[in-house]
Amino acid sequence: MSALSAGMTREDAFELLAAHNKDPFHIEHGETVEQTMRYFAREYDPENEEFWGIVGLLHDLDWEEHDDEPEKHTLFAAPLIEEAGGTPELIRAIQSHTSDFNPELPRPELQMEKILFATEELTGLIGAAIVMRPSKSVMDFNVKSLKKKYKDKRFAAGVNREVIASGAEMLGWELDELFARTIEAMQSFAPDRDTFVAE
């Protein structure tokens, strides 16, 4: 893999996120997806871990201000990212995760884009399931429990199951593998966090 440039530092990216998101949940969701992306980057593309992380951090940059127009999600983010010095490849990677809402956006092609597409909604579902558990921890969470929540459409109803299934297919992974690996990713950075909330 060649080196990818985000055109901004992680600090710049966080400032941008904080400027457009006031709800602590949205900040935390960005950070959760950032750390999940970094986990997978270390396996698939270690030299670009920073880029993968910034993609994860900013993937929902415009959601809080424009959540009433899901089909335009990430379109509002593009000029904000560009203005902050973000590169076209950063914008492309972020926009690819909403190509299911808007067919005019690029479909995920790079492994990084497929992983973002597959895990972003899933981290929300896992987070929602964790807060219902007595331990409030991801450390004792498992695939069996996740499958039960995934099948119950009323649980965390805002989480799009079709996107998760489609993401697994893109990666060539069984759903169980996607579930197991995403739980492992979250266990790698969130052993003590119990503040996950469903969107």
Fold and architecture overview:
- The protein is mainly alpha-helical and 199 residues long.
- The chain has one domain.
- 59% of the residues lie in helices and 0% in strands.
- Helix 2 packs across helix 7.
- The longest helix has 21 residues.
- 40% of the residues are buried.
- The C terminus is likely disordered.
- This is HD family phosphohydrolase.
- One of its GO terms (molecular function) is hydrolase activity.
> Mind summarizing the main beta sheet?
none
Q: What is the SS-derived class?
A: mainly alpha
Level of helix content?
55-70%
Overall geometry comes to: globular
Along the chain, the helix and strand elements come as HHHHHHHHHH
Mean pLDDT: 93
Beginning-to-end CA distance, first to last residue: 34 Å
Strand content: under 5%
Number of helices: 10
**Based on the structure, what is the oligomeric state of the protein chains?**
single chain
List the uncertain runs: 194-199
In total, the number of strands is: 0
Q: How many domains would you count in the coordinates?
A: 1
Tell me the radius of gyration.
Answer: 16 Å
InterPro entries: HD_domain (IPR006674)
Domain HD: 27-109
Protein name: HD family phosphohydrolase
Pfam family, one: HD
Question: Can you give keywords for this protein?
Answer:
mainly alpha, globular, hydrolase, HD family phosphohydrolase, HD_domain, hydrolase activity
Outline the fold blueprint.
Blueprint: H1 10-20, H2 24-44, H3 49-58, H4 63-66, H5 77-83, H6 88-96, H7 111-131, H8 143-151, H9 161-171, H10 175-189
Helix pairs in contact: 1-3, 2-3, 2-7, 2-10, 3-6, 5-6, 7-9, 7-10
Keywords: Hydrolase
Protein name: HD family phosphohydrolase
InterPro entries: HD_domain
